[in-house]
Amino acid sequence: MPDRVTSRVKALAWWVFATQVLIVATGGAVRLTGSGLGCDTWPKCTDESFVNNPAMGIHSYIEFGNRTLFFLLEIVAILALLAVWRFRKQRPDLFWLTVVPALSVFIQAIIGGITVLSGLNPYVVGIHFLSSVVLVVLAALLVLRVYTGPGPRKLAVSAPLLQTVWLAAIFGFVTITLGILTTGSGPHAGDGGAARNGLESEALQTVHAVASYGTLLFTAVALFLARSERAYRIVRWTGWSIAVMLVQIGVGIAQARLALPPLLVGIHMVLACLLAAGLFLALVETRQRLTPAVPSSPAPEPAA
């Protein structure tokens, strides 16, 4: 148990982030392969057993594998929490950012259970994904904070830059929400018999695309303003977000023209989490840590 931020603490922060992204990818695989009800009850896989059996087919292995992965997330989260335990009073930010994933595994499991028991209700499935996005964002913040010191922070950018970053973040959230609703109206229900939300898919796709281009526009303006103000930390995250968005737009166009192939939809889901993390960190970096002033040495007294 270290008494300060060490390379081990940094590595565990990265592991928290990686596992949160991984669970999004495997959760997408469950849905996109139609394995959402591979285990048809919760918390057990069947009425008689917590584990699946070969007679249940490949879908049960995919769903049960995703459930099992939550144990990996919990182990990593607990290790990260233990790693910061000794200096939790000096770094309460790191403490709470490791408490959240440690507790969220149980919350996510409950939401996942409700998802199964509701027969893959598209709105519950959407909430499940949205909560995963939030956890990826907080894990990204944990990674950022292990590389920065503690202490109060103050606004370090101009009002136009701050407002533009906020607009990019808001448009990004709207884009992701619209993407969730669009997926909830499409063919990938997670199971052949699962209901859809009944919304018009083509109209949602259009609105979703407009919101994504709005996000790209405001992020590009934020990048320009950040460069002009030499706010290089914001330049880093807005640049990252634009790179993710360009790939995201390419994947979105491809999946629309290729009738939503599962692999591309899964990539789209993971990229949405990475985009949310980038935009959030850009917003976080608008406030910088106050550096304590170094006391000046007293002037020498004149000789008598």
From TrEMBL:
<dbReference type="Pfam" id="PF02628">
    <property type="entry name" value="COX15-CtaA"/>
</dbReference>
<keyword id="KW-1003">Cell membrane</keyword>
<feature type="transmembrane region" description="Helical">
    <location>
        <begin position="237"/>
        <end position="257"/>
    </location>
</feature>
<dbReference type="InterPro" id="IPR003780">
    <property type="entry name" value="COX15/CtaA_fam"/>
</dbReference>
<keyword id="KW-1133">Transmembrane helix</keyword>
<feature type="transmembrane region" description="Helical">
    <location>
        <begin position="12"/>
        <end position="32"/>
    </location>
</feature>
<keyword id="KW-0560">Oxidoreductase</keyword>
<feature type="transmembrane region" description="Helical">
    <location>
        <begin position="263"/>
        <end position="284"/>
    </location>
</feature>
<keyword id="KW-0812">Transmembrane</keyword>
<protein>
    <submittedName>
        <fullName>Heme A synthase</fullName>
    </submittedName>
</protein>
<keyword id="KW-0479">Metal-binding</keyword>
<comment type="pathway">
    <text>Porphyrin-containing compound metabolism.</text>
</comment>
<keyword id="KW-0408">Iron</keyword>
<keyword id="KW-0350">Heme biosynthesis</keyword>
<dbReference type="InterPro" id="IPR050450">
    <property type="entry name" value="COX15/CtaA_HemeA_synthase"/>
</dbReference>
<keyword id="KW-1015">Disulfide bond</keyword>
<feature type="transmembrane region" description="Helical">
    <location>
        <begin position="69"/>
        <end position="87"/>
    </location>
</feature>
<feature type="transmembrane region" description="Helical">
    <location>
        <begin position="123"/>
        <end position="144"/>
    </location>
</feature>
<feature type="transmembrane region" description="Helical">
    <location>
        <begin position="94"/>
        <end position="117"/>
    </location>
</feature>
<keyword id="KW-0472">Membrane</keyword>
<feature type="transmembrane region" description="Helical">
    <location>
        <begin position="206"/>
        <end position="225"/>
    </location>
</feature>
<feature type="transmembrane region" description="Helical">
    <location>
        <begin position="165"/>
        <end position="186"/>
    </location>
</feature>
